[in-house]
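As a warm-up, study this chain.
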Amino acid sequence: MTQKPPLRHVLGAFATGVCVITTCHGDEVIGLTANSFTSVSLDPPLVLWCLDKRCERYDIFAGATTFDINILSSDQRDFSDRFARGDAAIGNHEGLLTLDHPLRLKKVIGWLSCTTYDTRAVGDHLVITGQVEAYDYGAGEGLTFFRGRYGQTHMFG
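Now compare it with the structure written out below.
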C-alpha cells in the first residue's frame, strides 16, 4: 500500500499568486506575505485572504480595520521573503511605500485598499474579508508560488 503524501504537498500543487498584506500598527506599517488571496464578489467589491492563527503578527492583522493587498511582480521575490520571515516593519527611511497611499508598496502589479468587512475563524486560520475601497494595477509578470518554489506568470496569445 502506498502512503499518501502530506496534504500540504497536494495543496501546493495549486499555483498561486503572491501578495503582501500591509496595515498600520501604531506609527508603523507592517507587512505579511500571503498566497491565500482571492476575489469574492464584484458587487459589492469583496476580496479575502487567510491568516494562520499561529502567525506572530496574528493580533495585528486580526484587529486591523483597514489593510492593503499588494500583488507582487516577478522581480519582487525579496519582498515575499522579507515579509514571510518576520521582518515586518516598513521604515519610512526605506522608501518602499507610495506617498499617495501609505499602505501601498511601490512597483507592485496590482493593489487593493480595503476596509475589513468580515472575519471568521475557520479551522486553524482566520478568514478576513475586505471591501475594496480603491485599487489600481500596473504592467509586469506576477510572482507565483508552486510546490514550494517561486515562479512567474507568462502571458499567452
